[in-house]
Write a structure and sequence with these properties.
heterodimer, A: 1041 residues, alpha+beta, 4-stranded antiparallel β-sheet, globular, B: 364 residues, mainly alpha, 3 domains, 2% strand, C2CD5 (chain A)
């Protein structure tokens, strides 16, 4: 019995009226964990029952603690008939299982019913007493920390980054079981919610075991997904990066305040001190004081797991050591060998991280992706999920070989996804091929000397751009030049990646969101034929998406993409492709050429004129964009760089492949044959459309920026106001003779209008930036397209931002000019240039300064105390309607009533709702994360049979998403947190049947619950005792109402 | 291509004050969009009509969901579904319960019943306020009335506690509830010149001095079962007011009263002769109003009587406000010098309030 779970039911409030006659409710609560159930007394006739129950104690295995959710059901007692359920609360107790996270879960939870939504709240206290269990054969993995954040969490230090962990579990979907025909929708929904909760618990436990085997203590970049395969079952799968993390000791956690997260990163003592023991003064994990020596013989195979993929599929060959020999200098070879030995033993040298400790990422090769079309068949034995495992193993192998072809031995920013329609499933995986510094992959103490060499050899800010592959033996034709920054190494002319912009990268100007959107009609077909049709379409889609991205990138005058995410969605009669990325101008890469338009038939004069007109328009747009995004790269004359290396002008970094169920692998050359990629030939109306569509993308209104990465390149001074939001749109296509063009236009308009609406909605936050813009496309029915967007709007200080970009540019220029003193004139020119070119009209500026002069910092506005709080105080002291208490109190105090009100100001935290921030980013601007409380991973189903009465589909989904947010916030608050970072809505499956007045929606969200402290409050705290006060002050400071 | 579904949900609920106003004013989505277009929002922001339509729909949906909570404002504070900063919550509540002057004048003093609700069509047509907005305002009055009706303690405080209004709004609602409970006539033509503010002012004075709550403040019996409510006038007090009749019924007393007032005011009053001539009429009027308050019907006509018996005679003689004040002060103070009159405390309780009311009511 390694654990005792204790639960206390305190009270309820705002319960629904269950007894029409009395307009009241006789509520009681069932508390269930595993197979044990406790009940509270019935609290008669109240909508605000005070149960104040005893402590219900469950004695359970820690395996169960990890798998099972605590299930709390609120019911209305009925003497004569069956008790009516009011609703349920599922509480994941995982955060209580590791020492550094939350110690108690206590707070108000919304009572949720899958048919009625939130029906009141219940106050619950949960505690766990864990007994130390040293059983070596244990099946549980308590103590392994999970983070959704795809970078090393802010108050930790990575000792070792072990690498890829994956697992999947399958089960039958309760919705498709025979019993579903006879049970109520509510019972069915609850069965599903419970099953998925169980499965994610199991999955997390199994992944934890693998981490323990690898001697890690945490999973970073944990991404868990559901595949609703319908008839054939339910798959829950997860990937992540196993790490050994070390908590930074408290003094380090209270580093001087800094605004930009990038600065923060740099201040963490990653580089200075390779010895982990100096940092070990913080609260220690049991593993921390061991030495991490890796014997190569130690295999990572996971005997315990049911989803092993490494049986025979992995050819454990070296990675072309021949080519390594041809590489630049002896250093490179050394590095390569080191890294290789560290990575070779890994089956999949993949990392789900998108941001890395400085020095981790050595070179970036480019995007690698693989897709595979599969036919779903019934999962016969849920305990042997081999088929699904084999599918993924196959794809991962492919990714690995692509990376190898790019001269890289690792893949970073790795992610996996599926798209399912009926019995066809597209599995996709993508990542960025990279060369990594072995220091973080192995014991950190050994590599001291190498570390120094890296610092000497790799100039900051451009090293990652240098090609990792052998230029004489390139995997594909590419156009190389010497790096525009250090002028020593070769760089490609464009770079596509799936990771965040490295913090030390030198960027010119600002970045922007780029999207490629594409639809392709497909004939309706069954099974095998359908899969074949899809497989045949995929290469064309990828090619076109790639072309669109490239053209749009050129149109912006930029040369690199970060955070690239290509989503291919399959529907009954069409395929949709949506690629999003953040474009930037990397100072190390060459300036992009323009776009040239060439007509096919030069004879016609008017046609000629038309072409030249288009050409002018495009050139104007490029010029305008350069101005808008402040792209003024220093012009470096040819002599300095040396002439470009004579290579065929090809530019593709995207290596992709298709594989069908038959395992046939086809390679596609995306490099446009022998033509120059920037020449757009207009030979038919299709091409015309393409050019037009290029020009229809409207830039965001002034004062707005957008990106899909964590941080907007070129903006540094975030202010504290953030607004996370989810927006969903569904359009119905007119089914009459749809063409690809009409479809494309519809889809394009849908996305553009959605963005425009967002800009309009958030106009009060200007100047601001939409960060982490995440589009998801699904095709719920024949003629329906659904687009879901989650992002966060962050305000920034325009004036300061301008300054810092200036200094940033100056800095980068200084760096660039160290080799050549003649260049010193540029900083001056640039400064005078950048002032008038900032994009805000003067009128707005006035407005802005007026606002900032009014002296209400956003942070304070958040919790400005108003008269409403006074009233609440009063309401607290004076009980309902009776003047008696007041009279006595007033008699006691010699002051008048006015004084009395002011005097009695005890913090009434119990009556207020604490503000919980949510953000898809890993940080909170202007604040410091002081503690990670655990992972939030929640799955909800909502169904209605009175769609019209609930405000139609919009009303239904609006309410549901608001409720999901509320439940996430409530769980975070109960853990003692005040924010969720790395929040993501992984699934939003919406189905409607307006004729039956019905709709159903499934939502899956996750994130990391944290405690943050405002930087302004940080100083106050640090003068006091830091550890004792941090939690207290954030609770007090952020509790507003 | 038609938009089937179009929603935006923020972690912090976005409240657009402008759209909120349009929603409260009862405009439909399309009317609201038209009004926003007319306000020039498209030019300011460069948005399209479709964007505006979607935005307006979205806000309306949010307001609709919030409305249920606004019916019991403490719920808005404690609910978990919408994360709204306190200052915004206050704004939502304050605006939702705000009312139009034109509307409140129509229903002030009327019974807040179904019958009155049926007349809202007419009120809407007469005032130009949309029917929807009239309904909201009427329902607000009724809701507040229902909640505080049976409650003890200060009316304004009770309202403030249960609806989280600002002081100002709580006092206004106290007046509305007080008027509705006592059914004071305010709609007569001769009362049309009076604003809601005038009545609210009088209501506050009356609540302070003439209700059971006013007596209850005396700490004599804090545990008594007496309903110390602010809603009802103190019946005992109203009965006692009959005793004041002696001031006009006893001719000697009346003459003495008059001579004392005249002596004191001679040379200080611009309208002295008019006052002298009218003294007995005015005094009779004021005292008779008091004496009649035993009957419910006469209580309802209080303001009609005050205007008829005092305000109009003075106004027809063009008394300046300063003279009215001097006269009323002297008129009530002098009673203390009348040796034969025994109900000094009663007189003060009546006259202090009445004097305040009359001064407020005395304008064009």
């Amino acid at each position: 019995m390694p654990g005792k779970l204790k639960v206390k039911i305190v009270a309820g409030r705002h319960l629904p009226v269950m007894d029409r006659a009395s307009d009241l409710t006789d509520a009681f609560v069932e508390v269930k964990f595993g197979n044990t159930t406790f009940k509270t007394d019935v609290y008669l006739k109240s909508l605000n029952p005070q149960w104040n129950s005893e402590w219900f104690k469950f004695e359970v295995d820690d395996e169960d603690l990890q798998d099972e959710p605590l299930q709390i059901t609120v019911l209305d007692h009925d003497t004569y008939s069956a008790n009516d359920a009011i609703g349920k609360v599922y509480i994941d107790i995982d955060p209580l299982l590791y020492s550094e996270a939350a110690t108690v879960i206590s707070g108000w939870f919304p009572i949720y019913d899958t048919i009625h939504g939130i029906r009141g709240e219940i106050n619950v206290v949960v505690k766990v007493d864990l007994f130390n269990d040293l059983n070596r054969f244990r099946q549980s993995s308590c103590g392994v920390k999970f983070f959704c954040t795809t970078s090393i969490p802010k108050c930790y230090r990575a000792v070792i980054i072990h690498g890829f962990v994956e697992e999947l579990v399958v089960n039958e979907d309760p919705e498709y079981q025979w019993i579903d025909r006879i049970r109520t929708p509510r019972a069915s929904n609850e069965a599903r919610q419970r099953l998925i909760s169980l499965m994610s618990g199991e999955l997390q436990r199994k992944i934890g075991l693998k981490v323990l085997e690898m001697r890690g203590n945490a999973v970073v970049g944990y991404l868990q997904c559901f595949d609703l395969e319908g008839e054939s079952g339910l798959v829950v799968r997860a990937i992540g990066t196993a790490c050994t993390l070390d908590k930074l000791s408290s003094p380090a956690a209270f580093l001087p305040a800094c605004n930009s997260p990038s600065k923060e990163m740099k201040e963490l003592p990653f580089n200075e001190d390779p010895n982990p023991n100096t940092h070990s003064s913080g609260p220690s994990t049991p593993l921390k004081n061991q030495t991490y020596s890796f014997s190569p013989s130690k295999s990572y195979s996971r005997q315990s797991s049911s989803s092993d993929t490494d049986l025979s599929l992995t050819p454990k060959t070296g990675m072309g050591s021949g080519s390594a020999g041809k590489e630049g200098g002896p250093f490179k070879a050394l590095l390569r060998q080191q890294t290789q030995s560290a990575l070779e033993q890994r089956e999949f040298p993949f990392f789900t991280l998108t941001a890395f400790p400085p020095g981790f990422l050595v070179h970036v090769g480019g995007v690698v992706s693989a897709r595979s079309v599969k036919l779903l068949d019934r999962i016969h034995n849920p305990d042997e999920p081999e088929t699904r495992d084999a599918w993924w193993a196959e794809i991962r192998q492919e990714i690995k070989s692509h990376a190898k072809a790019l001269g890289c031995h690792a893949v970073v920013g790795y992610s996996e996804s599926t798209s399912i329609c009926e019995e066809v499933c597209i599995l996709s995986a993508s990542g960025t091929a990279a060369v990594l510094n072995p220091r973080f992959l192995q014991d950190g103490t050994v590599e001291g000397c190498l570390e120094q060499r890296i610092e000497e050899n790799l100039p900051a800010g451009c090293g990652f751009c240098h090609i990792p592959y052998d230029e004489l033996n390139m995997p594909f034709p590419a156009h190389l030049t010497y790096c525009y920054n250090c002028r020593k190494q070769k760089v490609p002319d464009v770079l596509f990646t799936t990771i965040d912009l490295p913090t030390d990268a030198t960027v010119v100007g600002k970045g922007c969101l780029i999207q490629a959107r594409l639809c392709r009609l497909k004939k309706k077909a069954q099974a095998e034929a359908n899969a074949t049709a899809i497989s045949n379409l995929l290469p064309f889609m990828e090619y076109e998406v790639h072309t669109q991205l490239m053209n749009k990138l050129k149109l912006k005058g930029m040369n690199a993409l970060f955070g690239l995410r290509i989503q291919i969605t399959v529907g009954e009669n069409m395929l949709m492709g949506l690629a999003s990325a953040t474009a930037v101008y990397l100072a190390a890469l060459p300036m992009p050429g323009g776009i040239q338009i060439a007509g096919k038939t030069p004879s016609d004069g008017s046609y000629e004129q038309h072409i030249s007109h288009m050409q002018k328009k495009i050139s104007d747009t490029i010029a305008k964009n350069k101005e808008l995004y402040e792209i003024n790269p220093p012009e470096i004359s040819e002599e300095i760089i040396g002439s470009p290396i004579p290579e065929p002008k090809q530019r593709s970094r995207l290596l992709r492949s298709q594989s069908e169920s038959s395992d046939e692998v086809t390679e596609l050359d995306l490099s446009h044959g022998k033509k120059d990629a920037f020449v757009l030939e207009i030979d038919d109306t299709d091409a015309m459309e393409d050019v037009h569509s290029l020009l229809t993308d409207v830039p965001p209104p002034s004062g707005f920026y957008s990106c899909n990465t964590e941080i907007m390149p070129g903006i540094n001074n975030w202010t504290s106001e953030i607004q996370m939001f989810t927006s969903v749109r569904v359009i119905r296509l007119s089914s009459l003779n749809l063409t690809n063009q009409a479809l494309n236009k519809n889809f394009n308009d849908l996305c553009e209008n959605l963005l425009k609406s967002l800009y309009f909605k958030l106009r009060s936050m200007i100047p601001c930036c939409l960060c982490h813009v995440n589009f998801t496309v699904s095709l719920p029915e024949d003629e329906l397209i659904q687009v879901t967007v989650t992002a966060v709007a962050i305000t920034f200080d325009k004036n300061q931002a301008l300054q810092t970009t200036k200094t940033h540019i100056e800095k980068s220029l200084q760096r660039a000019s160290t080799d050549n003193e003649e260049l010193l004139q540029f900083p001056l020119e640039l400064c005078s240039d950048s002032l008038p070119s900032h994009p805000f009209p003067p009128a707005k500026e006035h407005l802005e300064s007026a606002r900032s002069n009014s002296g209400i910092p956003a942070a304070q506005r958040d919790r400005c105390s108003s008269w409403i709080e006074l009233i609440k105080l009063k309401a607290q002291t004076i009980r309902r309607g009776s003047i008696k208490t007041t009279v006595t109190v007033e008699k006691a105090s010699p002051m008048g009533e006015g004084n009395f009100r002011n005097r009695s100001a005890p913090p009434c935290a119990n009556s207020t709702v604490g503000v919980v921030k949510m953000t898809p980013l890993s940080f909170i601007p202007g604040a410091k994360i002081t503690k990670y409380l655990g992972i939030i991973n929640m799955f909800f189903i909502r169904e209605t049979t009175s769609l019209r009465e609930e405000g139609g589909v919009s009303g239904f989904l609006h309410a549901f998403i608001a409720e999901v947010f509320a439940m996430v916030r409530a769980h975070v608050a109960a853990l003692g947190g005040n924010a969720v970072v790395s929040y993501i809505m992984k699934q939003c499956v919406f189905m409607e049947n307006p004729n039956k007045n019905q709709a159903q929606c499934l939502i899956n969200v996750s994130g990391d619950a944290v405690i943050f402290v405002r930087e302004s409050e940080l100083e106050v705290i640090s003068t006091q005792q830091p550890t004792a006060n941090c939690q207290q002050s954030c609770a007090g400071g952020e509790v507003t109402t | 291509m038609t938009s089937e579904l179009d929603i935006f949900v923020g972690n912090t609920t976005l409240i657009d004050e402008e759209v909120y106003r349009l929603w409260l004013d009862g405009y439909s989505v399309s009317d609201a969009v038209a009004l926003r277009v007319r306000a020039g929002i498209l030019e300011q922001t460069g948005a399209t009509a479709a964007v505006l339509q979607s935005d307006t729909m979205d806000h309306y949906r949010t307001f609709h969901m919030l409305e249920r909570l606004l019916h019991a404002p403490p719920k808005l504070l404690h609910q978990l579904v919408f994360q709204i900063p306190p200052s915004r919550q206050a704004l939502l509540i304050e605006r939702y319960y705000a009312f139009d002057e034109a509307f409140v004048r129509e229903v002030l003093g009327k019974k807040l019943s179904k019958g009155t609700k049926k007349d809202l069509d007419d009120i809407s047509a007469k005032t130009g306020i949309t029917l929807k907005s009239c309904r909201r305002q009427f329902d607000n009055f009724k809701r507040v009335f229902k909640v505080v009706e049976e409650m003890r303690g200060s009316l304004a405080d009770n309202i403030q506690q249960h609806f989280l209004f600002s002081d100002r709004l709580a006092r206004d609602y106290a007046a509305i509830v007080f008027f509705a409970n006592n059914r004071f006539e305010t709609a007569k033509k001769k009362l049309q010149y009076l604003s809601f503010g005038d009545f609210a002012f009088c209501a506050e004075l009356m609540i302070q001095n003439w209700t059971l709550g006013a007596v209850g403040e005396a700490p004599s019996k804090p545990d008594s079962q007496v309903d110390d409510m602010d809603m009802d006038l103190d019946k005992e007090f109203l009965q006692d007011l009959k005793e004041l009749k002696v001031l006009v019924a006893d001719k000697d007393l009346l003459d003495l009263h008059k001579s004392l007032v005249c002596t004191a005011l001679r040379g200080k009053l611009g309208v002295f002769s008019e006052m002298e001539a009218n003294f007995k009429n005015l005094s009779r009027g004021l005292v008779n109003v008091a004496a009649k308050l035993t009957h419910n019907k006469d209580v309802r006509d209080l303001f009609v009587d005050l205007v008829e018996k005092f305000v109009e005679p003075c106004r027809s003689d063009h008394w300046p406000l300063g003279d009215v004040r001097l006269f009323l002060n002297q008129y009530s103070v002098t009673v203390h010098s009348l040796d034969g009159f025994r109900h000094q405390a009663l007189w003060d309780r009546y006259m202090d309030t009445l004097r305040g009311c009359l001064l407020r009511l005395y304008h064009d």
